[in-house]
Amino acid sequence: MRSTLIKLGIIGKPVGLKGEFIVAQRDGSCPFKLDKILIGASPSTAITYQVRRQREQTNKLILSLNGHQTRDSLTPLNGLNIWLPRDELTIDEKTEYLWSDIKGKKIIDCQGVPLGEVIEISNFGASDIVVIKNSDGRLLDLPFIKDYFSMNFESTDEFLTMNLKLEDIDEFWYPC
After folding, report:
1. Closest alpha carbon to 16 in 71, 69, 75
2. Which residue, 1, 10, 37, 170, has fewest beta-carbon neighbours within 10 Å?
């Protein structure tokens, strides 16, 4: 059985003539060396590929794969998702987290009152933003920062705890 797969990005534009491509829908570097990746429309249809080369160019991740030595050989893969097994990623959980570890977590306030569930995460430059959906279907967008959330959590925790009370944020919920 495969471990949970997380999306790294998609197969983007070719770079040069020797089978390299940009990992699109991803900003910045990749903090770990990639040996194998899975490519497919969904995790269930993804096929394993051996990474031949990994490098960065102008803050973009560039990859090439064994068996793909020309830009034309990448055409059937263009636009497909790149997946990685979560359990193969090494991060320092005291200082780092993956969006896939946050999405789907239940949120409780500092008094243990359930607030909802994280349904989406995005980043517009300053910090990660979590979208919480409550049991009434209303939404709340909050920066995922230590002023609002306890950052003492593990990826396996069921809940994320806010540093605020429900009444501190009640007026900021909005309809779907």
Report:
1. 71
2. 1
